[in-house]
Design goal:
It is a single chain. Helices cover about 30% and strands about 25% of the residues. By secondary structure, the protein is α/β, with parallel strands linked by helices. A hairpin with a 2-residue loop joins β5 and β6. The chain is globular, with a radius of gyration of 30 Å.
């Protein structure tokens, strides 16, 4: 090597050394924070279009908003918290398939099945799962026989280097808030315990963000709600919730967990931003994008065209006029879940006319919308009564009718899906009295109810199988069956022609008069001599000792295994101790002895 080349090499090595020293001296900056956007909806219940009356944004504008947000931040996931595949006629006609197709086109990333997504039956739900281009996840939805699930427990997404683990939780109430036959052989494991397992497993997979996609709700009446999960499970960054139709404008924080829910019927689009740096979530914000903003969006043309095709196919069927009404038929949720309505009266009258039963009883949760005065079309009735429930006539005693009515008003004044709508019967109830002893003046066909007398009761097959907590009917053989509730009402209109039902005092709320309590003059209290304490007799080994059992009063929604869990025993022990013939059948206000 020449002297000149040696100098060049030396200079090059010196430069490399100098650069190394300079780079080593530079400050080390923290990893730049990334923003993960979560868009969420829940309890869509088959709604497709912009709806001024309900305040729904519609699917075409949902797609527009998602695309707009994704253009600003491609790190976006679109989640559905359940109760979407059933509820409106255009979706029900194809048993949910049209909704799955639309969700595929909108670009959903994951969904948890809600209780009403089981309404077409479990087999059909699995068929829809296979048609979906997004995972349906349900970590606590398992088979009773072997504890295995047909649903993925969770899904891990890699979003621009952020590992996001999302697991699904379905509500245990599905067992009675969908027809019981829809979940035969399926059980919903405790969401709290399953959530703990999911968090542990996802942390082992080194995810940066953990999200629970839940259909549990925040109602206190729910057996295990989202608050229970947030309070008792550490490590969940975000719970995207549904079921209770609750609007949480900026979310709600429990512990370190942000809970979000967007109401129902696409009245809002939920938007969450998670700031992630150094492998963890450092900041969380939530908001709702509502109808007043959403209605001005330009609908996505592809989704809008798909919806028009669906409506055109179903138009002739839905537009057929079957009768008239002189008055608006009221089916609003806040009315039918806590009181008598003229639409409920009309339906129960039609049920009695179709079957000749003595008494009709149906649940307010089965009435989903009002019908305006004027011509009544098939589509109107199917929108109000979208469920595939059929008439069922069973034989019951007057005592069982009393139990049913007591159950029906047990949550008043809170709105409840099991609130009773009745025909052939009238009664009063006093909400100031204890649950289980609120009803009075129960008359059937104008005569006081006789507890031992047998009556023919027509209800829907959902309730006749113990649905909505009407366990007093479960197991009774059907002595007659009929068509869909919607079909029965359609036939009633065709026969009667024009209707004008009224709220006529079938269900009357009364309250006990408030009694002013005046202070009673207190007598002078003189010191009492201390009682003589006698020594207790010695208990010899082998002597019998009597221990009084605790008493537990069954509440609505209780099951034996949950009661047993509270007292650190087993349901088998309770069943044996209480000599229960059927341990799976317990009733509100029944006394269970705890040994």
């Amino acid at each position: 090597m020449s002297f000149r080349n040696k100098r060049v090499v030396s200079l090059f090595l010196a430069l490399v050394l100098l650069l190394g020293i300079m780079i080593g001296a530079l400050p080390v900056f923290a990893e730049e924070a990334k923003i993960l956007t979560i868009v969420h909806v829940n309890d869509v219940h088959g709604r497709l279009n912009l709806d001024e009356r309900e305040g729904g944004i519609g699917l075409a504008r949902l797609k527009t908003k998602v695309d707009e947000l994704r253009a600003k931040n491609p790190n976006l996931l679109l989640l559905n918290a359940g109760d979407t595949l059933h509820g409106a006629i255009d979706i029900n006609i194809t048993k949910g398939e049209t909704m799955v197709n639309l969700m595929n086109k909108i670009g959903f990333d994951a969904m948890v099945p809600g209780n009403h997504d089981f309404n077409y039956g479990y087999k059909r739900l699995l068929e829809l799962k296979d048609k979906a281009e997004f995972p349906m996840i349900g970590s606590n939805i398992v088979k009773e026989a072997n504890g295995k699930s047909d649903f993925e427990p969770y899904k891990i997404f890699d979003v621009d280097g952020i590992k996001v683990g999302i697991f699904g939780l379905g509500t245990e109430e599905t067992k009675y808030k969908s027809h019981p036959s829809n979940t035969e052989g399926i059980k919903f494991e405790d969401p709290v315990e399953v959530a703990k397992k999911m968090v542990k497993e996802l942390k082992e997979k080194e995810v940066n963000v953990i999200i629970a996609l839940a259909h549990l709700g925040v109602d206190e009446s729910t057996d295990a709600n989202t608050y229970d999960v947030a309070k008792n499970v550490e490590g969940i960054d975000l719970i995207v919730d549904g079921h209770s139709h609750t609007e949480l404008p900026n979310g709600e924080v429990k512990g370190d967990t942000l809970i979000v829910q967007a109401g129902s019927y696409l009245k809002n689009i939920g938007i969450v931003e998670l700031e992630v740096s150094e492998g963890k979530v450092n900041k969380k914000t939530a908001k709702l994008f509502g109808y007043n903003e959403g209605k001005d969006l330009v609908p996505n043309p592809i989704i809008e065209e798909e919806i028009k095709k669906i409506e055109e196919i179903n138009k002739s069927f839905k537009e057929a006029v079957v009768g008239k009404s002189k008055v608006n038929l009221v089916g609003e949720r806040e009315v039918v879940r806590k009181g008598e309505s003229n639409l409920g009266n009309l339906l129960t009258d039609a049920m009695i006319k179709a079957t000749g039963a003595d008494v009709a009883l149906t649940n307010g949760g089965g009435i989903r919308a009002s019908i305006l005065a004027g011509d009544i079309k098939v589509g109107d009735i199917l929108t109000s009564f979208p469920f595939t429930n059929t008439l069922a006539v069973i034989e019951v005693t007057g005592g069982e009718i009393v139990k049913a009515l007591e159950h029906g008003v047990d949550m008043y004044p809170e709105a409840a899906g099991h609130f009773p709508h009745i025909g052939g019967i009238t009664f009063k109830f006093d909400p100031s009295k204890p649950v289980g002893s609120r009803t009075s003046d129960i008359n059937i066909k104008g005569e006081p109810v006789k507890l031992d007398k047998k009556y023919k009761l027509v209800t829907n097959d959902f309730m006749a199988s113990g649905g909505d907590g009407y366990t007093m009917f479960n197991g009774k053989p059907f002595i007659a069956e009929g068509g869909l509730l919607s079909d029965i009402l359609i036939e009633y209109f065709k026969e009667v022609g024009e209707v004008e039902p009224k709220v006529e005092g079938r269900v009357v709320v009364v309250e006990s008069p408030k009694i002013e309590i005046k202070p009673v003059p207190q007598p002078e209290i003189k010191p009492q001599p201390k009682p003589e304490i006698k020594p207790q007799p010695e208990v010899k080994p082998g002597a019998a000792i009597t221990i009084e059992a605790q008493k537990y009063v069954v509440k609505s929604g209780d099951v034996l295994w949950k009661i047993a869990k509270q007292f650190n025993t087993t349901w088998e022990n309770l069943a044996e101790y209480n000599k229960l013939k059927n341990p799976h059948l317990i009733f509100p206000n029944q006394v269970i002895l705890i040994p």
